[in-house]
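The data are passed on as follows:
___
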Amino acid sequence: MKNILSRILLLSVFVALSSYNVLADNIIIQSSTSLKNSGFYGYIAPILKHYTGVEIRVVAVGTGQAIKNMKNCDGDVLITHARNAELEFLKTGYGLERFEFMYNNWVIVGPRKSKMNKNFASLEIRDIMKIIYDRKEKFISRGDNSGTHMKELSLWKQLALVPEEFPKTWYLETGSGQGATLMIANELEAFTITDTATWYSFKNKGGSEIVGYDNEDLNTYAITTVNPEKCKNIKSSAVEKIVTFLKSANGRNTISKFKLNNANAFFPI
């Protein structure tokens, strides 16, 4: 009888430990800052845990730093918004697969009271940046190799303009995250690049507003999985659960339901 009770007790402990391991399954996401700043991770984390049993922990840094961290195997998966940098990561062998799962819009924000705004009504983001350059209006760059900074540099390149040659009297770099950059732009009544979700969630808008959109290129977010041959401790099975959910109809519906100021922050792909 004692042997039977002992076996039952051991079985109960085994089942309890097994259940705990399932519940305790977690991954570290190396991510761009915009998804955290917008509140997206806070929104989706409990939903992911409910449907996949996986808890997410987020390291929110600029895209360039996130990729660098992932090359050091400091995480389990990469979620960023800089296509070229992500493709380069795949070429290194550290990245395994890249999956685009949602998008929003790139915008340029600037002072609401600016006399220039009347001229911006029907202009596209590149035209606005050319006016800013010609008039030497203050422009604030993140200057931190983030996805947003990479986007800004690509826009200047399309205009055949080189930021390194811009005088610091009007072109300023913060070397900081998006929140700090937006705050500085607002205080200096300057212009800067951001995305719609980050702007909707930014609390200290002050006298700034969206003055133009990028109508040619979407701000696309992608999940890039990591090669377990490069990073031995990657929790590939847990990552796959997250990817499978985001690919599903339920996952796309979850993304669609996340709103800021009664507007969709992201749109599923």
Summary: The mean pLDDT is 89. Residues 40 and 96 are 25 Å apart (CA to CA). Residues 106-218 form a domain with the D-Maltodextrin-Binding Protein; domain 2 fold (CATH 3.40.190.10). The radius of gyration is 22 Å.
